[in-house]
Amino acid sequence: MASHSASLTSAGSQRRGGEKAPAEPAGADKYSVLLPTYNERENLPLVVWLLVKSFEESGNNYEIIVIDDGSPDGTQEVAQQLEKIYGSDKILLRPRAKKLGLGTAYIHGMQHATGNFIIIMDADLSHHPKFIPEFIRKQREGNFDIVSGTRYKGNGGVYGWDLKRKFIRGANFLTQILLRPGVSDLTGSFRLYRKDVLQKLMEKCISKGYVFQMEMIVRARQLNFTIGEVPISFVDRVYGESKLGGNEIVSFLKGLLTLFATT
Amino acid sequence: MTKLEQWVSTLLVLMLVWLCLVQDLLNLGYSKKFHDVLVPLPVYLLVTAGSYTLGTLGFRLANFNDCEEAAQELFMQIQEAKADLASKGLTL
Asked: What is the largest CA-CA distance in chain A?
């Protein structure tokens, strides 16, 4: 069902279905990786090492923006050491004073990003940088506005989930039925966005947590952005402690129903 | 139109059509056999939808990709990363 009326009402929207930024020559692309961190002292150097390895092997131009929300465990000190090792043109430290949430971390990070593409991912090693070249390849292949990593299609998968967590697939099934998003993994947070696309979406999204990731995709569909998918493997919680609270199911359902009723 | 509105309007239309047929408001005069199938149809469809859901969930649960190799690879790369970073001067 074409959402032509939706795109007409979005203020100042420059993007309709047919208009697309011309695919730039590969050499001109720069990829800014946004890494919001909170208490990731052990994981941060590892994820940065993997990112650097992946980008150097694929030859793409990149920068890594670390947005630390005042972690008390020394994450910032580690980040400073990484900046010394890899250079301040590759590792950009843009911390904030306290824990302010993911959405604002992205906005903050984007303000300092010099790339024309933004990659968002988790800094806890659940997302492996080795998939980034595949995201890039997929994006160029279809000139997509967004490429989303999926755990539920192709040979995508998850390591480290017990039976209870695997019932998450049930939640995914529910979101497919209710929202018909055209994307197999709606709550995933390992994605590549064109910078201007992400900026436009951030203006429109108001939810938090998992629902925020879902809302981004739903809004993107409303605005007729194109989305490609790449299967990824998600390795859950190798290091560190889980930051997920007990109310995630309730807030997820609330968010899902809100999106269902408002989009 | 929001998804909720789509669902509600579709369901309403289907319900009205079904009611019309059951009460034979259009005086189409069809056979008793047709009527016998029509009356329990909503319940039947509900049960079918429920079974499909359970079946799909079960299937996906059984075929869940546990990517063991990815975890192994990551563990090895962590060791490699730690050694390399230490040699570059990183102290934890």
From this structure: 52
